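Case 306 in the screening queue. Each case pairs one protein sequence with one candidate compound; here the compound is S-adenosylmethionine. For every case the pipeline is the same: read the inputs, emit a complex structure as tokens, and attach any notable structural observations.

Predict complex for case 306.
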Amino acid sequence: MSAPRTSKWYIEYSSPHLGHMHGITEILVSVQTKFQKMDIVRSGAFGTCLILDDKMQASSVDEFIYHETLVHPVMLTHPAPKSVLVIGGGEGATLREVLRHRSVEKAVMVDIDDQVIEQCKKHLPSWHQGAFDDKRSKVISTDARKYLEETDEIFDVIITDLSEPVEEGPAYLLYTREFYQMAMGRLSANGTLSLQAGTAAIPYLLNFSAVYQTLNSVFPVVAPYQTFIPSFGLPWGFAIASKNQDPRQFSEAFVDQKIQERISSPLSFYDGTTHKGLFGVPKHVRRELEASKIVIEDNHPLFTYH
Ligand code: SAM
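Case 306 output:
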């Protein structure tokens, strides 16, 4: 006899017509912070999940896919990153992956919401794995745009691990041309930047293609890439932007050798073969990215449905 179905469901809507349902076995946290709605729940399929403004951020079962994809390609695209800025990244898992790189001397994480950081520290210890307490880490709780406006620090790598640009959410002004110009101004000579850019699923490529074109309006090199994130139920878009470095030129053997030389512990998702797959963006997605005319600006923001 099959097991009875879960009776509690969380539905993440990508549009009025598409949602992904997760059977929930326990609600650990459900609060409205100063900046966003935060839920930490246990899903029957994906373990503990962080959900902000009704959008799945990551799950304990597959967060390694998302975080290795966001962090390692951009870190290897820089010849020898010493200083890294993580923008957002409340769970601490992006910081964890950055700190695996032997060359890193300083990792600054700027997240607007200290309540998210506190609850993640408490409920998701296997995600941060002590990254917040590493002597190379500095955690700052403020709006990352304000931080970038005011700091005179220069970074080798900037990783923007932000929640999606939902209307009235805290992140939408960190997806604009003006914001990327500010980030470019804080990068060193071989500086590289990575970000998550929303779904790469065919009906909903607007955000990915607009972020790609917005980066193109600022950076000399922009390399889009994608992978499937099981807990999102969708292929997900990412991009690396830089002044002069292009990860699409790396062979499988080069990536494997750099991982060996530069990363201190074994990875679960990313290697040379995975790298080729990530940057092998399918033809129909490339066509949409190139065809888009949208550049996101402070006065013309783009919002994700929620
Ligand atoms: N994995 C994620 C996803 O799929 O969207 C993103 C992860 S992380 C939890 C997103 C973080 O961005 C949150 O902790 C949130 O507080 C932070 N954030 C949103 N807006 C921000 C801002 N203006 N400045 C700094 N951090 C911000």
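Case 306 observations:
- DSSP finds ten helices and twelve strands in the chain.
- Residues 50, 52, 57-58, 66, 87-91, 110-113, 116, 143-145, 161-164, 170-171, 174, 196 surround S-adenosylmethionine (CB under 6 Å).
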